[in-house]
Amino acid sequence: MVVFILIASAYLVWLDYRVVDRFTGRIWSLPARVYARPLELYEGKKLTVDELLFELNNLDYVSVSTPPSRPGRYHHWDDHFEIKTRAFQFWDGKEDSHTIRVDIDGDTVSGLYDLYTQKDVSLVRLDPAYITGIFPSHGEDRILVKLEDTPEIFREMLIMVEDRRFYEHHGVDLKSIARALVVNIKAGKTVQGGSTITQQLVKNMFLTSDRNLWRKINEALMSVLLELHYGKQQILETYLNEVYLGQDSERAIHGFGLASDFYFGKAITELDLDQMATLIGMVKGASYYNPVRNPQRSTQRRNVVLDVVQQQGLISPQQAALQKQKQLVVTSRSNRARYPAFVNLVKRQLVRDYAAEDLKSEGLLIYTTLDPYVQHQTEEAIINWVPALDWNKVGLQAAAVVVSPGNGEVLAIVGDSNPSYSGFNRALDAQRHIGSLIKPVVYLAAVTHKERYTLGSVLSDTRLRIQGEDKKIWEPENYDKQFHGDVIMYEALLKSYNIPAARLGLELGLADITSTLKKLGSDKVIPPYPSVTLGAFDMSPFEMARVYQTFAANGFNSSLRSVRAVLDAHANPLQRYELDVNRDTDPAAISLINFVLHNVTQSGTAKRLAEELDFAVAGKTGTSDDLNDSWFAGFSGDKLGVVWVGFDDHRTTGLTGSSGAMRIWSQLFKSISTTPFRAEMPADVHMVWIDRESGLLSDKGCENAVELPFIKGSEPAESAECAPGGSPLDWLKNIFK
Predict the structure, then answer these.
(1) Which of 131, 215, 586, 707 makes a 20 to 30 Å CA pair with 516?
(2) Same domain for 559 and 607?
């Protein structure tokens, strides 16, 4: 007996240690939660009705027919919205819920004010969309809720259904066990359990689901020990956050906070009575009563819960009847598979920009730059166009990167023709020949030497044969297989002629091109072959976006970033490495190239865009040898997009930059709000009329005259002979020609 007492005492001490050790400090290993950018509303913002509706629906805001009285609801008619926002912990502080009215005129927010005071509001942010979690090894996910932040009626319903005598027992309820035993004996099978909330918590946190006497004894002992150390409120709060409520692929849904968001797209404070009853009903069997997989069973169980709480007098018979009539509607959108290419970038940049030790903290809040609407439209453009471009071949792939050039924020990334595919990320990792996308870099390198080159410099488009170090002959051709004689630099870039670009690149030297690439933000080392002057070297779409971001930002370059801020579990910001914004390129030289890139979309290789878009853009088509790669890099006033199309095995696509990637780019930019491109000319740049053939000075009324920007002092000193521009009849004929 003495030995037995000693062993039993030691065992109790060990069980007690396990209970206290788990409840001391942080109970759970929490995943990092990754959020998209919040939609900022302010007067003058470019935003359409469809975009705002998308944002609200993406956040699972509920449409109501009257002014919203609860967070997460909105009332919409015509061009007007009444919205009650949710409170949210942003990186710069917590923002309370606001009730606002938003008026939209065409594609612009024309009014923003408080719904009740009618006072103008300068800025309101919607809560950001949850993208995914970066999970601990155990795969559990949860949104922690405090007991006082849960609705009182929810807590009362839970206790009535799961443990009516919760506040009376000390971990084990002998009366409930006896009652369940009698019921089960009468039924001849197990139909009722006698476990308390405390016992359920112990089973979930410490024990297996094995049904045997020894586990039940441990469960009872540990439940009593738990209640000796901790109060009812702490036990109930822990239970609310621990209870298992379903599975989302490999992610386990724990706690009512996450379950509320996962199944209904709203915070637990926003749940209706029928939704509360649905979640409480799942406690009995999360899989069996799953509202997504088994809606009929879930509805029946919900109604049982409503009957129980009505019989206990918590709600009236009329309320119960009304709630039971409601149709079960769940959202249950799995967030694990959303935006895999973007999440891949986030993970890489977290390691790059933050100290590794800080990232080991649990429960990090990661605020990213992802724009859900731009991401959606990028995916739609790829989904719509890749099958149309694939012809009779199978396996055509695409990738895209969309950036805000002013600050380098990445708005969207797609790495596969199936945007939800989480495998090889072509946007970041596909290394492909960039073709003619290199030409603006070559010409920028040239016009930086303003004493030697201008947009009016005459280049030779005649046969070119070069013998490389390997003794092989390189003889480039133009796409149209023609030679065009002497052409000015403007014309050569506008029409994307190969031979003048190759001659110019060789004249400048590969070191100059490499140096210019570096100033544009790339650290790519160019191989020492003549063909690199026409883009016969590899870069990824993301790397090309970095280069063209500098063009789009008028010479300012910064590292493309996907993360705005990271907070720890206590909402304290983590220290990050500073971002450098540089302007290593001559703004005057950049303005010359951007002028041509705009005209490329008006009368050059991308002239179809002038017909398809009702706003100004700039851009460049890119096509590699044998039509293996189709590229387009283009930008408006506030967005840059780079699109690539090709086969993984480098088969020919039969597509040029304009017939392939540009079609995707065009659909994307037609579908998002953006500001028009405006050519910014520095003070030392002015417009001069020159002769299109000779590059000499001309006049506006002369034949072949074109007005081009020149850095002051670099314009030609001589004038060409001025042939009259022709009669009005000739002008009319040219239009129809």
Answers:
(1) 707
(2) yes
Question: Are the C-beta atoms of 692 and 431 separated by less than 8 Å?
Answer: no
Percent of the chain with pLDDT over 70: 92
Two tokens, residue 39: 């939609």
- Number of separate helices (H) and strands (E) present in the chain: 23, 31
Kindly report the backbone phi and psi dihedral angles of residue 102, in degrees, each rounded to the nearest multiple of 5, phi listed first: -120, 125
Q: How far is CA 540 from CA 348, 385, 430, in A?
A: 15, 21, 5
| Alpha-carbon gap, residue 132 to 109, rounded angstroms | 30
- Residues 310 and 403 both lie in one domain: no
Task: Supply the pLDDT for residue 171.
Answer: 80
Q: Which residues of 113-136 are buried (b: 16+ CB within 10 A; e: fewer)?
A: bebeeeeebeebbbbbbbbbbebe
CA pseudo-torsion sign 150, 156, 158, 159:
positive
Contact 552, 634 (CB under 8 A): no
- Site of tokens 């590292």: 559
What residues form DSSP beta bridges with 538? 433
The mean predicted confidence, pLDDT, of the chain is: 89
**116 in the same domain as 1:** no
| CATH code of the domain containing 323 | 1.10.3810.10
Does residue 357 fall inside a structural domain?
no
Residue 351 lies in a domain: no
DSSP letters, 668-728, are: HHHHS--PPP-----TTEEEEEEETTT--B--TTBTTEEEEEEETT-S-SSB----B---H
Question: Do residue 58 and residue 98 come from a single domain?
Answer: yes
Structure tokens at 164: 């009516």
Locate 224 and state its tokens: 């009593």
Q: What is the CATH number of the domain that holds 396?
A: 3.40.710.10
Give the phi and the psi of residue 17 in degrees, each rounded to 5: -60, -45
Give the strands of the sheet with 397-404, arranged side by side: 409-414, 397-404, 640-646, 629-635, 618-623
* 487 domain-assigned: no
Question: Is residue 728's pLDDT more than 70?
Answer: no
Nearest to 632 by CA among 671, 599, 659: 659
The alpha-helical segments, DSSP class H, found in 270-425 are 273-282, 295-311, 317-324, 340-353, 372-389
pLDDT for res 447: 96
Name the residue with tokens 């030679």: 483
* CATH number for position 64: 3.30.2060.10
User: 67 and 214 share a domain?
Assistant: no
Chain center to CA of 451: 45
pLDDT in tens, 538-550: 999 999 999 999 9
CA 189 from chain centre, in angstroms, equals 52
Residue 711 lies in a domain: yes
Residue 38 burial (10 A CB sphere; 0-12, 13-18, 19+): buried
> Structure pTM?
0.83
How far is residue 344's CA from residue 426's CA, in Å, rounded to a whole number? 11
Cβ burial 686-695 (10 Å sphere, 16+ → b, else e): eebbbbbbbb
Residues tagged active-site: 162, 436
Where among 621, 647, 671 does a domain terminate? 671
* Total count of domains within the chain: 5
262 and 313 assigned to the same domain: yes
Q: Which of 278, 277, 397, 389 is nearest to 332 (CA)?
A: 278
Do 638 and 711 share a domain, yes or no?
Answer: no
pLDDT digits (tens, 9 = 90+) for 306-328: 999 999 999 999 999 999 999 99
CA angle centred on 383, ends 381 and 389, rounded to 5°: 90
Do 547 and 608 have their domain in common?
yes
Contact present, 434 and 631 (Cβ < 8 Å): yes
Which helix H or strand E contains 631, and what residues bound it?
Answer: strand 629-635
pLDDT in tens, 657-685: 999 999 999 999 999 999 999 988 999 99
Range of the domain at 428: 376-434+530-671
Count of residues making up the chain: 737
